[in-house]
Amino acid sequence: MVPKIIKKYNLTRPDARFNLINLNSIDLIEDRYKPDIDIIICFNAQASTNSKNVIIKEGKHYLVSPKKYNLKKNIYLNEIMHLPYIEITNLLSLYSDSSIMNYFINNELDMNFYFKSDSYSAALSFINEGIGISILDDNTISNANKELVNISNILDAEFKYRINATVKKEIASSQCNDFFNYLIEQTQLNH
Questions:
Q1: Tens digit of pLDDT for each residue in 19-40?
Q2: Which domains does the chain have, with CATH numbers?
Q3: How far apart are CA 57 and CA 2, in angstroms?
Q4: What is the DSSP letter of 45?
């Protein structure tokens, strides 16, 4: 998502330059007040008194599985407990209002945790290779090889997420302010 935003922004401001740091959402939230980080874009960042926050995308999670499992398009989670599950760790999307892990625990779903990954895209790469199943966001799923995977609606619950851009209220850089204002404009155009 971020490369597409920057590409579109550069059409109007070709002189803009970026220094991207790729971290997990929890790390980004914890590091957002460091002097070298001006803007973070991550899952489910809460607004704080020291920052401005805009939601740039909202979506939901789906069950993604290799086609070899032949899973239905609409599925209950208790139907997949025996399959090797890839747990996504260190992402705020999993510990938000509609937490997937909390749902497993609260509903006593004894998932067959096969391995853990701290990234949705890494989990998807294994599923594309026929290894394991996972619950992933629709943004990541857009990169799935549709010839190799099934995407199923989860009937038990709707696991929603949002992607936020958060910026410090006290910004020295006018370029940073310009980019953040661009994100706000784009969000308003898309709603």
A1: 877 766 666 666 655 656 788 8
A2: 2-56+165-190 (3.40.190.10), 58-161 (3.40.190.290)
A3: 11
A4: P
